[in-house]
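Wait, can you check?
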Amino acid sequence: MSLVICSNRENDRVNDSDGSIYEPFSFRNDMSSTYNIPKDAQVGLHSCKINLNGTMTLSGNEVFYQYFGRLIDPDAGEEIELSSSQPIGTPLSEVQYKAGRAGRFEDYDPDGVADLVKQQMNKFIFHPNLKDKADCDVNRDGTTNEFTGYSFNYDQYADETTSTVPLVAQAWTLNPADVVSLNDGNPRGLRSEYPGGVYNGSNPEVTAFNPLLPWKYEVSGTEGVFTSVARANKDGPFSTEMNAMINTALPLSLYNGQMVVNFKDVNDAGLDWVVGLSRFCPDLGQAQARSFAPASYDSARGPDAKDELFCDYQVRRYDNKLYLQHLAMNSDPTFDTNTEVDATFTKDLDYFDLTGSTFTELYDLDTNTDLFEKVRFTAKGQTLKVEMLVADNTPTVLYSFDETHTKALQLPPIHQNCWCLHPVLAMDSDATKSDGIMNIEVFEGCKDIVDYGWKSNSQRSGAFTHMGWFEYGWYGGYDASQGELLEERFWFDQNDTTSGPNADGQLRYASVPSSGSHRRIGYVAGTDGTGAKVAGFSEVLIPGVSKVYPSPDANLQAKLGFNQPYDTVFVHIGAGAADLGVQFVSDTVPVFKSGQSIFVRLTNLSQRSMNAFKGSQSQIIAHLPRFDGQAETGRLYYEPSEIMWLDLDNAQELKVSSFDISMVYVNEQYVRSLTGQTIVVLAFRKKPKDA
């Protein structure tokens, strides 16, 4: 008997330079000289050493949660209502989970689980500066290469310098009258059939009606151009007949992201206009003759509404005056007795009452003595800065976050419902005035998000995850009432001026620091809106059921290797100012077991066996039982008590220059859960005469 020792590498350390012929489940050993096998020989397995990861069985019911917001201190009696964020349910098997097919079991090795977790982390994080920046890595012992747990990484975009002009194909109307029939016999098709204000459908009834919208959006050079078309027929629900659009190509970066819009042309024409930032409402939120708005929005609530137009934040000209407005809620039942108490509405912010303001009253845009031509929004974490610009971009501050502002003079924080903010442009028009023009000169969106857009995923799959959290709830990704409940918290309620950490009805706002290391979103906003102190605003990983961060169906605590239901303890990735990542690490080693038998296959010689399961001949030479002593995974050694010899049926001596080894399951698929070093010792002998 002679032995041949085969191995894919010299030890269990993983070498990134190893090629495919050195995989632990499939490898080839080439020899410098031929190996002679005598005629009428037999082959068998002498022994085998493998490093087996084991597998984890997932049923489609597995869910963990992710959170990005103010850290909650239960020891201080704090609850989630102190946050402007909500934990986000993240199913591991989204398709099964959404399709109601949970219970269809699938096995994953540690790398497979990591890939799945990474995929779902990125789908469900929803904050634009975290989207597609998450990762899950398998941790291994540096010496033995044995699995030790996982690292969960969250990085951030810092897109504050790159302008990404919104695309034509993602510009949608905000006026329902543009696309729905108002019982006037003029059907106008679907909203999705009007990208950029131009009809691209095929309905002959709509085509015959000449379905041109009263506006169009185009990209010219480095700018987006919004043009309002003069029209005599002013039917529709908007009392001011505003031609309005939202562009959902990309969300604004909340890391110093800017939007600059030039309104000079339309202002010189004496037309009312709006420049705003808003979440996207994919469908009509109320009756057909109302607005594209959340179900909780009531445009008639409160005294400040100018029309039906919905926006989270907006600067506008109305009746020749300059207004700054935002979405709000007021729980006072006497505030407006004609509508629901918790309905959201549009509220004026009296910028001229701000400390240090250069304005003493509503600015007159008709005379426009300061020669303003542009509006600039700058987003820093949860804060917004709003400025009016002249032709050379010299700014005059309309509003800037200041922690000393009273609640009535503070823009609400950029909260989870409106993490994904998009440009809104609107202007008035009638038959006697020339077309108005507004230009998006700068829009700094999170340009590296993959396939962002409300129509980028199939509705049938339920995979509406390349959009904002609010939009995902709109499509049924979660109970949409969570979004409404979020906006009923004290920090959004204009009637509450006593709750919160400072007993003034406000939150501490997270911002982006201007100095120091790790300049990531998650700092207390100072007077200048930049901040310098850690706010306790961060990512939280929630694999188990937690009352602090509500996660009622989370069930991955043990499978992801955590001792507690949530983890707020992270380490920074890197040490520089631009190193924005944080990392969470498993507390324990998740348990993976070997769920299937493994077989050794020798593929370049002439032995034959029968795999009855497959119904065909095979080149399998040995079976490795599932259990070897006490070990099920890790470094395993197998030596049969008696070698099973297989005939090579070689009438002549064989000269062999290589040995091709593979490790397979009973269906002869590769055992990809193997890692590190695989050793197979082959035994050869001349067939006994009495055999």
